[in-house]
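Suppose you are handed a protein chain with no further information: no name, no annotation, nothing but its sequence. What can you learn? This example shows the usual starting point.
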Amino acid sequence: MAIREIRVVPDPVLRTPCEEITTIDDRVRGLVTDLVETVDKDGRAGLAANQIGVNLRAFSWNVEDEIGYVLNPRIVELSEDTQDGDEGCLSVPGLWYPTARAWYAKVVGMDLDGNELVVEGTGLMARALQHECDHLDGTLYLDRLDRTVRKQAMRELRERL
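A reasonable first move is to predict its three-dimensional structure. Written in structure tokens, the prediction is:
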């Protein structure tokens, strides 16, 4: 398939909640191929379908030399323990801000055969799972920032647009 262009703010597709995948057809198979090929680049930890302009609930990840995908993901478990650290986003290029996330996350979805797929992890993997599920709900990591930091981030974002 192809490495796809990343949509960036203020593209409205990034703020639109994605639709459930109800049929696994050639379009969905092609989407997964594109997601996996597009995320397979240094510095890319995850990629949601809407970041390449497709309004379907699917994302890929590239964490610790593991590349994968999940369809119709839902977060089913988050740890009470949290992690702090700078977070960035391919759709908000060049901006990194401290973003609190759960240390552990578990996502349930399905694979291309319609089988249940469970994806879980700690640290960067947990951050990626939460970040990509947020994308599919039309939420950007900027929305999760502390109020003062968010004001600074939005100011910097406006200056870049």
